[in-house]
Amino acid sequence: MTDARRHAPATGRNRDPILAVLREVLPPAGLVLEVASGTGEHGVHFARGLPGVEWQPSDPDPDALASIAAWRDAEGPANLLAPVMLDAAAPVWPITQADAVVCINMVHISPWEATLGLLAGAGRILPSGARLVTYGPYRREGYPLEPSNADFDMSLKLRDPRWGLRLLEDVSAAAERQGLAFERFVEMPANNLCVIYRKR
């Protein structure tokens, strides 16, 4: 029997710094929806580190869903829920309410429509005061792009011209249109940011 679990090397490097931010900004209890969960490794780690919440992983890709389920079966704590198929860009999500939304490393590795869908979906399902947390590399107005991120941006656009590092101000303006106010960002290792929005 083959093991469906996938591995993302970056997960081992970034999961603890991200978890430290999540412990600060997520509610102590409730449902946390993770959009674009990928391999599922983050979900195992965050559910274990945040035992008071129910962690709901999701992804649009069947192979990713199989990996998430396999990680959950092998190592998942009781508060890690079975993954659901969710396309961030879809106008209707299978989850209709959540107490927080987390999205790691999707905004730059997807078309802009996926980010707009993420913001619209979070705006629909979050109650007032709840947070959307995104993580990844961003461009910022008035700041030169770090050489490593410039190279990464170029490599992403070569893979798919619809991909690439987004301008934080563009994302925040789109978030505002969905009732999500920019709260702050936290600088993270390897020139990444955790960006936090709060539903009005």
What does this structure look like?
The protein has 200 residues and is α/β, with parallel strands linked by helices. The chain has one domain (9-199): Vaccinia Virus protein VP39 (Rossmann fold, 3-Layer(aba) Sandwich), CATH 3.40.50. The chain is 38% helix and 22% strand. It is built from six helices and seven strands. The chain has a seven-stranded mixed sheet with strand order 3-2-1-4-5-7-6, with helices on both faces. Strand 1 (30-35), helix 2 (41-49) and strand 2 form a beta-alpha-beta unit. The longest helix has 17 residues, at 9-25. The chain is globular, with a radius of gyration of 16 Å. The N and C termini lie far apart (48 Å). The model has no long low-confidence stretch (mean pLDDT 96).
> How many DSSP E strands?
7
Number of domains: 1
Q: Residue ranges: pLDDT <50 for 5 or more in a row?
A: none
Oligomer: single chain
Proportion in helices: 25-40%
What is the succession of H and E elements?
HEHEHEEHEHHEE
Please identify, by name, the CATH architecture: 3-Layer(aba) Sandwich
Protein name: SAM-dependent methyltransferase
Keywords: Methyltransferase, Transferase
GO molecular function: methyltransferase activity
Question: How would you concisely characterize the structure shown here?
Answer:
The chain has helices at residues 9-25, 41-49, 62-75, 112-125, 147-159, 168-177, and strands spanning 30-35, 53-59, 84-85, 100-104, 131-136, 180-188, 192-199.
